[in-house]
Specification:
Order of helices and strands of chain A: HHHHHHHHH
CATH class of chain A: Mainly Alpha
Structural class of chain A: mainly alpha
Largest sheet of chain B: 6 strands, mixed
Structural class of chain B: alpha/beta
Number of domains of chain A: 1
Strand order of the largest sheet of chain B: 6-7-8-3-9-10
CATH superfamily of chain A: MetI-like
Shape of chain B: globular
Distance between the termini of chain B: 34 Å
Largest interface: A-B, 21 and 28 residues
Largest sheet of chain A: none
Strand content of chain A: under 5%
Shape of chain A: elongated
Distance between the termini of chain A: 58 Å
Helix content of chain B: 25-40%
Bound molecules: adenosine-5'-triphosphate, magnesium ion
Number of helices of chain A: 9
Oligomer: heterodimer
């Protein structure tokens, strides 16, 4: 019987690859957007503007203090109330972006605050404007602190993306659920799902570790 | 060139600058000294508004600094600032440190800016260190790169906040030599320092600060030979016995 199910599983393996692809697309798009917004909000959060710092702080606290599955339901069910119809796919990307932005902005703000004040003073004294100070002096130095946890955050985001299956996105996790209905070998099915998640997470974990070591031993040259 | 009119500054309740009146003319070299915490750094940091002040007027090269709407980046490009701790950009080579502002603020072509940077590094005696990173340089060399970085903007004023205090004694001379040369070329300079040899050699005026007030001002010879106030006399005897 086991063997029979195993053969069935191999037959429908392309279905798993489709789910893997969906997971990669949903998390890929979200983490690119979360990186962009996280960088901008992180810079603002490290600024002296109290209002901005407070607002972003409240957003981060709200996201950190609630389960992601609740956030995604809120987005999926509240938007129609306001007359915005979102399909599962864009809703998933929106939710993951909001989640990732919150965490990435904290990482970025931490990295920027770790750059000594003298660097800001030297850069502004030489006549660079705020954008140039950030672009050429502050951000390159903060990358040392930012990159390792940022890549680590990507891994978390990819794993969190499994939650989008609850609103019907046909990602890897949902493929697992659907399959279990036909092949009642839960352990076998979800081991395969786990292996496929691991296949995309592991290279990133390696990258994060490598970056950490590299940053510890040498300066990043840009 | 620099004109303080009744400038007052507070850090919270702490009154750090008290009714400062000071006029520095073009080409003048002014040395600021005084005990720790007397407000020397705060005073010269006001000149390019690394510090804001609450009361009084300050004009630098005609620009009103008490008016917070003034465009600061433009003024700052005309003023070089040398810090006690150098603050070189650690992720860049010496050459890149010097060329950064000319490229981005003066909008020079990269090749021109690098030629300029080579020229300035040569001027501070570091022509062969262009490709070194700050961590590969000694303190004295780092400080000379920092001076070259300031000079690359062809500033009208150079400000120095204890430029030799963080250096090992054997490196102080090389930095002071560069500053002496700069002074002899007619640069307007405000220098916070306790290097009395430097003050004697090039300063037109010495200013003594204590507890946020400008207590005494005079030419270096008179100031060191017969200080007018007890506080200055005490201070001088202290630094001479060190
Ligand atoms: N950012 C700040 N916040 C609060 N107080 C400050 C700040 N910077 C300086 N002070 C205080 O202001 C006073 C003047 O400081 P300042 O650095 O101008 O003195 P200084 O004469 O340069 O001393 P030193 O010789 O030690 O460098 C000191 O009492 C100092 O503690
Ligand atoms: Mg000081």
């Amino acid at each position: 019987m086991m063997l029979f199910y195993f053969q069935r599983l191999i037959e429908i393996f392309p279905f798993f690859l489709k789910g893997l692809w969906m997971t990669a697309v949903v998390s890929g798009i979200s983490l690119i957007m979360a990186t962009i917004f996280g960088l901008l909000l992180g810079i603002a959060r490290a600024s002296k503007n109290k209002l901005l710092v407070g607002l972003i702080g409240a957003y981060v606290a709200a996201i950190r203090g609630t389960p992601f599955v609740v956030q995604i339901f809120i987005i999926f069910f509240i938007l129609p109330e306001w007359g915005i119809q979102l399909d599962a796919f864009p809703a998933a990307i929106l939710a993951l972006t909001i989640l990732g932005t919150a965490f990435i902005c904290e990482i970025v703000a931490g990295g920027i605050k770790a750059v000594p004040r003298g660097q800001w003073e030297a850069a502004s004294s030489s006549g660079l404007n705020l954008y140039q100070q950030l672009r050429y002096v502050i951000v390159p130095q903060s990358l040392q602190t930012i990159l390792p946890p940022l890549v680590g955050q990507y891994v978390l985001l990819i794993k969190d993306s499994s939650v989008v299956s609850v609103i019907g996105v046909m990602d890897l996790t949902r493929v697992g659920w659907v399959t279990v209905n036909r092949i009642p070998e839960g352990l076998m099915v979800f081991t395969l799902v786990g292996i496929l998640y691991f296949a995309i997470s592991y290279p990133l974990i390696r990258l994060s570790n490598r970056l950490e070591k590299k940053m510890a031993t040498q300066q990043v040259m840009l | 060139m620099i004109k303080f009119n009744g400038v007052n500054k507070w850090f919270g309740k702490l009154h750090v600058l008290k009714d400062i009146d000071l006029h520095v003319t073009s080409g003048e070299v002014v040395v600021v000294c005084g005990p720790s915490g007397s407000g020397k750094s705060t005073l010269i940091r006001c000149i390019n508004r690394l510090e804001k002040f609450q009361k009084g007027e300050l004009f630098v090269d005609g620009t009103p600094l008490h008016d917070y709407s003034t465009n600061l980046t433009k003024l700052r490009a005309e003023i070089g600032f040398v810090f006690q701790q150098f603050h070189l950009y650690p992720h860049m080579t010496a050459l890149q440190n010097v060329a950064l502002a000319p490229i981005n603020v003066r909008k020079m072509k990269r090749a021109d800016a690098e030629a300029l940077a080579h020229e300035k590094l040569d001027r501070v005696g570091l022509a062969d260190k262009a490709d070194a990173h700050p961590t590969q340089l000694s303190g004295g060399q780092q400080q000379r790169v920092a001076i070259a970085r300031g000079l690359a903007m062809s500033p009208k004023i150079m400000l120095f906040d204890e430029p030799t205090s963080a250096l090992d004694p054997e490196m102080i001379g090389e930095v002071l030599d560069v500053m002496v040369k700069l002074a002899s070329e007619g640069m307007t300079m405000c220098v916070v320092t306790h290097e009395m040899g430097f003050a004697r050699q090039v300063a037109h005026r010495v200013i003594f600060m204590d507890e946020g007030s400008l207590v005494e001002t005079g030419n270096p010879h008179d100031f060191f030979a017969n200080p007018q106030t007890d506080r200055a006399a005490q201070f001088i005897s202290k630094i001479l016995t060190h």
